[in-house]
Structures are given as structure tokens and as C-alpha cells.
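Sample A.
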Amino acid sequence: MKVKVNEKPFLPDGRHVVTITEVEEGTSENKNVPFINCRLENEEGFVNQRFYLSEPGQPILAGFLRAAGIDKSELDTKELQGKTLSVEVEERTYEDADGKEKTIKQATNFELAGQATTSNKI
């Protein structure tokens, strides 16, 4: 059998400099909360990160935008494409609405590219 792979692997855990290559808009499956999903990638691989446009999600999105070099309170999501930033990739396990355990890759600890530090602070 021949197998053809047309996709990069998920980024390994750790800090990476990534570029936002795709932005999709949608609503959550259970509570219809609007979100934007950003594909963050580099030569090694990619991670998708969903940002919920809810009140609790605002600080997370604000930190992401600041790390991407965007310093305004309103923007067209198309402005995100091509922006570069530094992120930490990690796995997170949670229980979904049906009570099933799920593990996802996620990006956290957003920093300006070139200004990120490791989490091993003295």
C-alpha cells in the first residue's frame, strides 16, 4: 500500500516561533460561543489554537494579539495572517460536554518573537 502525507506533524511540546498561516471563524459546538481558530506553524510543524470571543476569553486573546504585534482593541481577523510570535506548545486534557476525556495540543504563554524567555527562571 502506498501512503501519501500532505500535512506537517504537530509541533512538539516547548517554545516555538510561529507564523499565523490561517484564521477561521466559527461557533462552539455546545454553547454557540463565537471563536477564531488560528493555525500557528513553522518549518517543524503546526498547532491550531482556538480563541473564544467570550468575556473570560478576552484576556487570553488580548495577550495573543499583543504578542503578534497588534495593539488595538478592534481588528479584522484577516489582519492576523502572516504575523509572527513565540508560543509554548503543550498538551491539555479536559472533559468534554459528554463527559469524555479529551487531550489536545494547545499554544500558551504568548510572547513577542525574539523576546521570549524560557520558563526556567532563577
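Sample B.
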Amino acid sequence: MFILLTGCGVSSQPVQSIEGPVTSVKIGGMEVECSAAVKRNAKGAAAATEEGYPCLVLMPEDIPVKTADGDTVSMQAFREQAKEEDMLDVKVVLANEKDIGEDPESRELTAAEVVILE
């Protein structure tokens, strides 16, 4: 019993940010491909799977959106760019650290900042 409890007590570290392409723009947010964050602690067959995982990122209107060079971009300009470009790569700094996994609820995130990587 002790070994079982010890094994269950081991958990992955929460993440502070995710990086990936924007797969769709939604009202109040976007979907970002976040398989790397989901699989970061996977081993064996789970790590090798090619299943993709989207994260739903809620984006309050007042969060900063920047380019990789540090230039500020308006939320409207960012949304238009994300809709027009296929697979626009972004880094999303999360409002709160979160343990992201296969469970869809764990992949519902709130952004504190968005950085356009391309």
C-alpha cells in the first residue's frame, strides 16, 4: 500500500508557459497545439504517440501581445494575423502555473501574455 501511495504522490511539475502553433481563433481566446506540454513527462509508448493535444487559451482583452523582438501588437492585429497565417507560432505565458495533461479540463488555460514567435 505504501508503494502505491508513493507512486501516486509523484506528479509532474506545473508549467508556466506553453509554445506551439495557433490552430484556431475563438471569441475570447484561441486554441494552441500544446502536445509538447502534455507529453513532457511521458515515457515509453505514451511519449511516442503522435496524438495531438490542443489547449484552449482564454485571452482577456487587456493582456499584452508582443513580437519576439518585444514590439507591442494590438489584440485585433494579433487575432487577424492568427486567422490569416497557418500555424502561427506563439508562446503563451500563463496567468497561473498549471499541470497540463491529457484531461481536457487541464488544458483550459488563461493567458497573462502572448509572444508571437515568428
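B remarks: The chain has one domain: 16-42+51-116. The radius of gyration is 16 Å.
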